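Before a colleague's protein record goes any further, I have to sign it off. What it holds is a sequence and that sequence's fold in token form. My question to you is simply how this chain folds and whether the tokens agree. Thanks in advance; the entry in question is below:
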Amino acid sequence: MLRRVRTLAVLEFVNIALIAWVLVGVLRMPVTAANLAGLALVLVVLAEGGAYWWVKSVQLAAGAAAPAGMGVFRVLDRVNVVVLAGGAAVVGAGAVESGGGAGVWPGAALWVFAVLEQVNYFHVQLSHDTRADLSRLVRSRRLRRSHLRRDLDRGRAA
């Protein structure tokens, strides 16, 4: 379990660099406010996810009862909603300004990706990348609370 959690942390940080490099460097995504807002939102939520997996790995390695910094993640859960709403406004304004042109679609898609990552980390587990995750999903026919959500709920109950 510890090895998998550390791998998740590292992969999230690698994804930050990889997504930025592919979109900006390789695909030459148009530099618009909407696209930059969407990209920034995705990268921030991925960084939060990577940070969570890292503190979770430290908790598991130390045998601690809970990961450190849950108060920060509790604040981020609320702040992210406001920031994502602001990002939606920037993307929406870009769509209106450009008449829905190609300069806004990458930003809109990235905003959706950021919202899905927010849900995946702070609410319910959307990603099912292991055989065990998939079989549990098929068996139960429902999404389960994310690891971060469970840690946040445990901290609130304590």
